[in-house]
Design brief:
Elements lengths: L2 H9 L6 H10 L7 H27 L6 H21 L4 H23 L5 H19 L2 H19 L4 H5 L6 H23 L11 H23 L5 H23 L5 H23 L6 H30 L9
Helix pairs in contact: 3-5, 4-5, 5-6, 6-7, 7-9, 7-10, 9-10, 9-11, 10-11, 10-12, 11-12, 12-13
């Protein structure tokens, strides 16, 4: 028995009416009524992932011995069966739609691979997200919204064309309009889970889709931090100041919303804190390294350690605050 229970018992009065109920709760064997359901749902999702992955790898193999019509029919059949299973068997709905979402991506990839439509990679992901949005919105599942957020994030990344560190740091810079559009696109993605919650017909089961919100906000914060940092170490122009200011404003707004709004969440607070540290330390690094002296590196290391300590202390205080403000529908780590 947990020692905490002995402490509670010792601090309570002998005639406290809550003690018999506490004792009955402790000595009862307990029946994990939802355990079997969770295991079954998890196994169904794993099976859906394996089936869809196998089909996608089969498409990627591009076996020449099989005709195009056979491949296309098999992929379309798998997609149709997945959607049909979701309509006929409610217990299989989540796993079937998860499989259908992945198979849809394989179908679009096969069409682009076979018929050479000339479309860019971002157009494939954009079409994937647009077509899958139909059942993702109707299913009211946070898992499917997480998959959809990843697809849209991939579309945005492919649209920018900056797929590696060299392209981010050295390749041609974006124009001011392109830069602002990138900021707005990531902002729109971060707002999607909040909009889903605000529309009762689309709201996920259990209220807020916390994991899709964390995923969308994490991707947006990473993009905003990267844009601001790259612009900061580029030549000082009005575009640099505007990009850094807007990115900093978006990060600060995310941090405040994660702490003080109805959508407060500790994990989102941690993500926003990391992004804020990146922006502030980047600004300090730009100023320190202008000295061009050996002591600059040591000074920057000291600053990083100070900011790390302050951030940890602030996050501990934020966790206590969020626990104090925790409601029935809020999840705090």
């Amino acid at each position: 028995m947990d020692s905490t229970l002995y402490q509670v018992s010792a601090q309570s009065a002998p005639a406290d009416p809550r003690m018999p109920r506490l004792y009955a709760l402790v000595v009862s064997a307990g029946t994990p009524a939802t355990l079997a359901h969770k295991i079954r749902a998890g196994l169904l999702l794993v099976a859906a992932l394996l089936l869809a992955s196998g089909l996608i790898f089969w498409v990627a193999a591009n076996w020449q011995a099989q005709s195009h019509w056979f491949k296309l029919g098999l992929i379309e059949g798998a997609l149709a069966l997945s959607v049909l299973a979701a309509c006929l068997w409610p217990r299989l709905r989540l796993a079937a739609l998860f499989c259908a979402t992945l198979v849809l991506g394989g179908l679009l990839a096969y069409v682009g691979q076979t018929y050479q439509t000339g479309a860019d990679a971002w157009q494939l992901f954009a079409a994937w997200a647009a077509l899958a949005l139909v059942w993702v919105a109707l299913a009211a599942s946070d898992l499917l919204w997480c998959v959809w957020v990843l697809i849209v994030a991939a579309a945005i990344v492919f649209w920018t064309g900056k797929l590696d560190l060299w392209q981010v740091l050295v390749a041609d810079r974006d124009s001011f309009a392109q830069l602002m559009l990138r900021l707005v696109l990531w902002l729109a993605l971060a707002l999607v889970p909040l909009l889903v919650y605000c529309v009762p017909a689309l709201r996920v089961r259990g209220g807020m889709g916390w994991w899709s919100q964390r995923l969308a906000l994490g991707g947006a914060l990473a993009a905003w931090s990267a844009i601001a940092t790259v612009q900061l170490f580029d030549e000082a122009t009005r575009q640099t100041v505007a990009a850094f200011t807007l990115s900093g404003t978006l990060v600060a707004a995310s941090l405040l919303l994660s702490l003080f709004s109805r959508f407060r969440d500790f994990i989102c607070t941690c993500l926003a804190t990391v992004a804020a540290n990146v922006l502030v330390l980047s600004l300090i690094a730009r100023w320190i390294f202008e000295w061009q002296e050996t002591e600059a590196l040591l000074a920057f290391a000291v600053v990083v350690m100070v900011f790390l300590g302050v951030s940890v202390k602030a996050l501990i205080s934020a966790q206590h605050y969020l626990h104090a403000q925790q409601g029935n529908t809020q999840e705090v780590l």
